[in-house]
Amino acid sequence: ENYLKQMPQLARAVGHRPLGVLDKIIAATIPLAKAGVLPDRYLESIFNANTLLDQPSFNSWLDDGLRLLEEDISQVQPYFSIYTQLGQASIRKHMPGIWLEEVRDILQLYSRALAGTGFILTSVHWDQNVFFGLERPYTDGTNMWLPDRLHGYGSEKDNFQAYKVLTTIQAAKVEFGTFALQDRDIQSLVEQLEAKYGSKTQGDTPLQHFYNAFPHPELAQTLFEIIEGKRITNRIRENYMGIKKSLDMVIQREVELRPLPDKASDGIIALEALAQYFALDIIPSTIPEHIKSAVEALYQLAVPATTPEANVVASLHAAAACYEFFRPVSTQEEKIQQ
Questions:
Q1: pTM of whole model > 0.85?
Q2: pLDDT tens, 192-203?
Q3: Which end of the chain is more exposed for a tag (fewer CB within 10 A), N or C?
């Protein structure tokens, strides 16, 4: 009955589609309802897919979801939710896209022109650099890992522009000093962290030494990459005016395609909200009220590290300060204080 009440709204949403679309949605909904696997926000996912996908892709998306009833019924609810990893990935899968292999050579030339050094471009894999289930492009200064396939930005030309933006961001890390760190640059900071957390850091690079000084290196790395990423995109806007429009398009689209997770821990939601806050310089409107002040405090703590005069060391200090917001607590009194 709840879904039937929303059908007039749904009919208006799909009114520009060919006849029969609403019938197909209803036909898909009935077996899901009979199986008892309709997600709480099923129609919200339908609205979202209707907005993002063309008609053939929308139909294919529905059909793939229905096939899960037979193949793996436990995946049906996350598939039809825009707040899950599987739900977001399922919609992207049905968007037009291009493969890295198609544009690898030209992107390698492009990255060399930007940074003055040749990168080895490789597809990012799920076990390499993942945040909230999503692959993140990254570089170690020599290699550059990019998504194997890029989709979700519109036409083939738009998806290629998105690849150029991702390449620009990674190449700019070399140009603007992310990998220019020397051990002496962070020695004092690392020693302070080792004394604070009782750790003994190790690693092949200064950044690895920094990450490993924390009890949770992955969290420290994620915070650093969010803050340093903002510093780098600010430098790109100042120095590469020709790509600014495409950069803004990609950032806006990424936020649109990644709604805040609604069933994750407060820590994961706060990290994603901070990343989106830095992306658009606007605090996400959907952030849970009880962590909004913490995310605002994180932003204010980190934003000085993204100014024109800031360098990578400032990003490290900001990440170390932000890490304190996520420090595990052990007693009820500490929980109340935090």
A1: no
A2: 999 999 988 888
A3: N
